[in-house]
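User: I'm putting together notes for a lab meeting next week and I want to include a structural view of one of the chains we've been expressing. I don't have a solved structure, so I'd like a prediction I can at least talk through. The sequence is below, exactly as it appears in our construct file.
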Amino acid sequence: MHDLLTIAGTTYQSRLLVGSGKYRDLAQTREATDAAEAQIVTVAIRRVNIGQDPHAPSLLDVLPPGQFTILPNTAGCFNARDAVYTLQMARELLNGQKLVKLEVLGDEKTLFPHMPETLIAAEQLVKDGFDVMVYCSDDPIQTRLLQEIGCVAVMPLASLIGSGMGIVNPWNLSLIIEQATVPVLVDAGVGTASDAAIAMELGCDGVLMNSAIALARDPVGMAHAMKLAVRAGRAAYLAGRMPRRFGASPSSPMQGRLGA
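Assistant: Thanks for the context. Below is the predicted structure for the 260-residue chain, given as structure tokens.
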């Protein structure tokens, strides 16, 4: 209860952020979100209805903003102009909400972040009064630039979106965390609970995931597992792991043993 995640001045008890796409239906979306005990739910404005179509079911019917922080994102945008426009529309749909997630993609095959366009969009959005959480490459130079622009959180990918490959470059993540002045949240690539735990053990402030939960055989069960993994990883990070060493070290010292 005392180890809270703070983003743009707001505190959250949960360090697990979840997506809202790819579920069987809206009911399962809510059930998995509850099992994860997530407080922040990201929404692809170009794909999910939160009021754009008044005649279709809205995600907000099952995940009301009074209970959750709805985090609009720019999934599907490939340039800064489209990303900025999408989040301006989201701000109107969510009654002026400032907190958003920016992602500008480089191509449809890898969905890797297009960092030049991301930097352009981030600067425009910050100037326009948005609190920008930003999906980015696991490059400590790029994340530093995003911090200098004024982004409220950086969200480096662990591996490609939807790949489930886990953390492929823990060393870069460690460099990003070491120099961070804002929260660092792993975004993309988590496949199972151990991936989430490793991210937290490295010192990440949180983890965002969608496919790892929604595409599991039992999404609700996996959401519960991810909740526990994030908590365990954070607890291990705060406790501090034992030093690595070459060779064995007896659990019971030989000195002072009975009969010696």
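A couple of points you could mention at the meeting. Helices lie at 26-36, 80-93, 115-127, 140-149, 170-179, 193-202, 211-214, 219-239. The mean pLDDT is 93.

User: Perfect, that's what I needed.
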